[in-house]
Amino acid sequence: MTTWRPRRRRPSCSTGTQETAIKRKAVEEADSGDSSNTLLRNLNLRVKTLEAEIERIKEKHRLLPSTERSRSRRRDPAAAAAGAAGRHIPSLGDDLLLEIFLRLPSLATLVRATCTCLAWRRAVASSPDFRRRFRALHPPILLGFFFIACESSPTRDVPDFPAFVPARTRDRDQAAAIRGGDFFLTSLLGRLDEPPCWDIMHVSRGYALLMNCHANLIAVFNPVTRHTKGIFNIVSVDTATVPTSGLLFWEDEESISFRVVLLTVEEDKKVRLIVFTSDTGFWSVGRAVDFPARPDGGENPWLSETSSKHTNGILYWVYEDHRYMTSLNVATMEFSVTELPQCLIGRSFYIGHTKDGKTCIVYADKFIIGVCLMQTCGGNNGVDRWVHDSVVPMDVELHRVLPIQFDVDSELDVLKVRDGYVYLATSRMHQIPHESWFLTLCLETMKLEVLFRKTYDGFAHAYIMAWPPSLLGNNH
């Protein structure tokens, strides 16, 4: 029998050498043993153990086949660098980048993403089609409400500003937009030569139209971007009548130029339009005219403060009796009167548009929400009339989101309608002020969402985040 002597193992520099040494050791152990069955079984177990050890070493070092190892050694460094660069985000084309942006959860997140670099901002700003698709897929973002005390009497030189209450949200980007804005309107306090008393007349496209009645000034201010479009002196207008209502009008969703439309009511109940155009920087004063005669021949009552601006270029004012509504075509500056449905008399309602852009009226009757749409009766030369589209009781849905008991005097108030979403507040009849819950309602699903609770006296302006001018391109 051959005597086995331990051999000195040489250090191996590769796994292949280790594999050869392990197998050689197994063969030598087989030669040194006897031919008994027990020894063979032990030898087989040893071989299997060594094979498992070899596989473990291969896995640890993640070995490649010899052909790939040699190929990787001969790879051109420039080609390797180009391949690595092709896997980075800057190598994405605008089309693929915009498809990724389209899947972001909200406009606030998109705005924050485009702040990363100039190329990303340009990709969004240069694509009107992307912005249209993004608007269609994402609901408007309510940042909060501006509240105005209806019984307050501003005193000259005593600061008087609208109070802002932010929407309670868990979205970090939306919260960042609120924190970074100037919703307390402190930017208007720097003008020391005028009384610090400002009142909000209208909110549109992220800009607030404010009036300082003591100094006869109009301001157009964006709280999110802290940008002031201008502060205009309305004393130069040849009329001593204080405007009763004002609207901020844009030609479309992406227009940068705007018009301020003020409505004044003269002592003889004639009305006059005063229009400021941002492109020219001048005011134009219309002549005092009578409101169009009502179809029933009745006396024209005063206008209420319910008004709205629409993308189709029509401005609306409602008579106090809620039986008729006068509209103004801004392009032609022509008035017309439309009869309102009987269901709106004595009801809280607002004029807005659905998700697909149709003009609609949403009203509340206690805890019932109704929707009216404009239809043309009698063909192309027919008369436009408001007709009922849907009536939905909201008792069950309201109890789902607010499991509390409302009394018989409780009801819903419609505050604003925008892009198929309705902004509501609970209220109590004949009790001002009162504790109210503020909610949003999706007209497509008729589902409610609770915003917050606050004392409410009937005057509030919903502030909805708009696209910043930096993302609207340079073609306007």
TrEMBL record:
Q: Which domain of life does the UniProt lineage start with?
A: Eukaryota
Cross-referenced InterPro entries: F-box-like_dom_sf (IPR036047)
The annotated regions of Basic residues compositional bias extend over: 1-11
- List the residue ranges of the region (Disordered): 1-36, 61-84
Q: Entry's PANTHER family?
A: F-BOX DOMAIN CONTAINING PROTEIN-RELATED
Indicate what this protein is called per its UniProt record: F-box domain-containing protein
What taxonomic ancestry is recorded? Eukaryota, Viridiplantae, Streptophyta, Embryophyta, Tracheophyta
